UniProtKB/TrEMBL annotation:
Name this polypeptide is given: Vacuolar amino acid transporter 1-like
Originating organism: Panicum miliaceum
InterPro entries linked: AA_transpt_TM (IPR013057)
Mode of membrane association: Multi-pass membrane protein
Ranges for domain Amino acid transporter transmembrane: 191-570
GO CC terms of this entry: vacuolar membrane
Region Disordered, annotated ranges: 1-79, 126-169
Compartments reported by the entry: Membrane
Family membership noted in the UniProt record: Belongs to the amino acid/polyamine transporter 2 family. Amino acid/auxin permease (AAAP) (TC 2.A.18.5) subfamily.
Biased composition (Low complexity): 126-145
Transmembrane segments: 221-240, 260-279, 299-321, 333-356, 368-386, 407-432, 452-474, 486-508, 514-536, 548-570
GO MF annotations, alphabetized: L-amino acid transmembrane transporter activity
């Protein structure tokens, strides 16, 4: 029995540099590839493997100088954003840094705390980011070798190459072991059922509120875009899976971009993904302002010449209320609240049908068959509903049985497409041409289900904002020079990010049009264009002709939709 298991460190959530035994236990439980020579880097693959995986292209994955490439916090932060945690005591204890810094179980955490004494206090000048790569190399050179573990992989360990025998541990792994990052890695592999729930948690977002408005903009025939976009997105999700399978060291979307197009591909993919998350936070602020102003329409502030209507007032006050949660260094308990996104979505759907059937509003057929002028707006709204590809590689990497991923993906996309279409039809039949950007704003306030639906749309973005902004904040903090990295600087960065989202939300208070712009630009890039481009680059020479043609068609569709949709959305916002 390992020392970790004897000491109760089986599901450690916080990792520390230099604690070899704890690191080994964390690697085993998280299901991630082993560290050191077991884990290796992209460059450890032989030339033959590279030629096989790349279809004879001969370009290896990142070399030794690129191992610590930005961003290193992507995997953990996105895992916490997407995963629905199991409510066990050990994972709940993660939210208490004073206990879990020294173990995940209560007894071992307490005993470790007594042994550590006063050394666990967090000074304000404590470095916010991991040590530099040179410091990591020097420290790991003086550390005793770590016992290799192959418990979590089915393949035998690959012996290190001669030129890698003296290389330190992979910097990306070491960076995640810094005690600055308190984002819990996956404690265990996910079952297929858990992966389906995680997929629903990603896909069932605020986009469902605008599907009825999509019919108003594009007409009834615009509903045909839902299965078209859903089927294309499902296929490109499978392409991401094949990209991950091409190398045992690929786990995230930025990794795929790096293998496909080098270091610039990694940076470009990362920037696009982070911009998408930042824009989602802007939409959360707009949604909170719209929803609360519908509940309290007469609220306003007039002070020293400054007049704030209900929407602007609630957008600012809710951002200030959210700000302390963004400062948190450990968001484990908040991730439990965010995991209720699926429950909140189901509740809103039930309330919509309840009001339509039980409260006597009824359904009234109306509307045009198609509206070509505003069809690009509907295209962007529907596209935003399938913006989950940034998380799919993480879900796939964390599955126990990866062969079930195609079924998980197909099941999730099929269910959410049916749900989106059903909500769109129901909402538009209830409200017709008066349908607003969020159908919850059309619900009569005097009915109890209407109040429940509105407050659900308020609580959901409030709890998800911090988790959505954390990956963006961590990526910026990683890029800061070492001399300015501190806890206070990190708080300042996060404060500026929150204030900037408020400024953008107040400058463009058009929930549906901004969402259509996001769906046209980012979703088409992340869900259609980049997966096909990366797949063709990685598997060049080993792809069937029909796949090449299909990928090129999807890329062309994505480019055309992105251009037309973004132009129409921007033009509509300017004309208002």
């Amino acid at each position: 029995m390992d020392r970790d298991e004897e000491m109760g460190h089986g599901d450690r959530s916080l990792l520390f540099i230099g604690d070899e035994d704890d690191d080994l236990g964390a690697d085993r439980d998280s299901g991630s590839p082993p560290t050191s020579s077991d884990e290796g880097s992209f460059s450890e693959r032989s030339d033959d493997e590279a030629r096989d995986d790349r279809g004879g292209r001969g370009r290896d994955a990142p070399d030794d100088g690129q191992k610590g490439t930005w961003p290193q916090s992507y995997r953990q932060s996105i895992d916490m954003l997407s995963a629905v945690p199991s409510p066990t005591m050990s994972t709940l204890m993660v939210a208490s840094p004073s206990l879990t810094k020294f173990g995940s179980s209560f007894l071992k955490a307490g005993s470790s705390f007594l042994r550590k004494g006063e050394g666990s206090a967090l000074p304000l000048t404590r470095p916010l980011l991991p040590p530099s790569l040179s410091q990591l190399s020097q420290s790991s050179m003086h550390q005793p070798p770590v016992k290799q573990s192959t418990d979590n992989i089915g393949l035998p360990p690959r012996p290190p190459a001669a030129h890698e025998a003296e290389l330190p541990e992979r910097p990306s792994r070491a960076c995640l072991k810094s005690n600055y990052i308190e984002l819990p890695p996956p404690a265990s592999k996910c079952s297929s059922g858990q992966s389906i729930i995680n997929g629903f948690n990603v896909l069932c977002g605020v986009g469902i509120l605008t599907t009825a408005y999509g019919i108003k903009e594009g007409g009834w025939l615009s509903l045909l875009l839902l299965p078209l976009l859903g089927g294309s997105s499902c296929y490109t999700g499978l392409l991401l899976k094949r990209c991950i399978d091409s190398s045992p060291n690929i786990e995230t979307y930025p990794d795929i971009g790096q293998v496909a197009f080098g270091i610039f591909g990694r940076i470009f993919v990362s920037v696009v993904l982070y911009l998408e998350l930042y824009a989602s936070c802007v939409e959360y602020i707009t949604l909170l302002g719209d929803s609360l102003s519908s509940v309290f329409p007469s609220a306003h502030v007039a002070f020293t010449g400054i007049n704030l209507n209900a929407h602007n007032l609630f957008a600012i006050t809710m951002a200030l209320a959210i700000l302390p949660s963004v400062w948190l260094r450990n968001l484990s308990l908040l991730s439990y609240l965010s995991a209720g996104g699926v429950i909140a979505t189901v509740t809103v759907i039930v309330c919509l049908f309840w009001v339509g059937i039980g409260e006597g509003i009824g359904f009234h057929p109306s509307g045009a068959a198609v509206n070509l002028t505003h069809l690009p707006v509907a295209l962007g709204l529907y596209g935003y509903c399938y913006s989950g590809h940034s998380v799919f590689p993480n879900i796939y990497s964390s599955m126990k049985d990866r062969s079930q991923f195609p079924f998980v993906l197909l099941f999730c996309f099929t269910v959410v497409t049916i749900v989106y279409a059903g909500v769109a039809v129901t909402g538009f039949l209830m409200f017709g041409e008066s349908t607003m950007s969020q159908f919850t704003l059309n619900l009569p306030q005097q009915y109890i289900p209407s109040k429940i639906a509105i407050w659900m749309t308020i609580v959901n973005p409030y709890t998800k904002y911090a988790l959505t902004m954390t990956p963006v904040a961590l990526s910026i903090e990683e890029a800061l020079p070492q001399r300015v990295q501190s806890y206070l600087v990190g708080m300042s960065v996060r404060t500026c990010l929150v204030l900037s989202t408020v400024a953008v939300a107040l400058l463009f208070p058009y929930f549906a049009l901004v969402m259509a712009l996001l769906g046209s630009v980012f979703t088409m890039l992340v869900a259609l264009i980049l997966p096909c481009a990366c797949y063709l680059s990685i598997k060049k020479g080993a792809v069937h002709l029909w796949e090449i043609i299909l990928c090129i068609i999807i890329i062309m569709i994505g480019v055309v939709c992105a251009c037309i949709g973004s132009y129409t959305s921007i033009n509509r916002m300017i004309s208002r």
